[in-house]
Amino acid sequence: MKNSFIQIQNTNMKEYILIAFLSLITILTPIKPFIMLITFFVAADTIMAIAGNIKKYGIKAYKSTKLFNIVVKTLFYCSSIVAVFFIDKFIFESSILGINLLLTKITTLLWCYIEIKSLDETSMNYYGNKSLWVYLKELFKKGKELKKDLNEIIEDDEEKKE
Known about the structure:
The protein is mostly helical.
């Protein structure tokens, strides 16, 4: 009799824990894309750094003890996003200046910028590439030239029609 009573209490406790966990997941559903995005950037940065390190120094230079930093970095980024989400949701009632989850978006953008900068530094250090920002400047310059050329072609076609 005693044994079955304990099992009933344990079952109820498991149900309460499951309900609490599912409730938390439901509350955090709006920030799932932000969490996935920052996790992707951390993973990309880590993979690129490991590959670059192996390329530059060989497989013997690879140390798995440094991989623990991935866990710490990801947990820090994700927990800060969750904390800011709660501030956004329950203090500012999800909207600042008419933009939903503004603080959460800004925080995620900040962490993504840091990871992109880290990817850029890794690319320059290990692979000898130019900075990402140099590539973006060149891309915009080529885009302006293309737009100018297209405008000239359009103007020539209009003159021929007239």
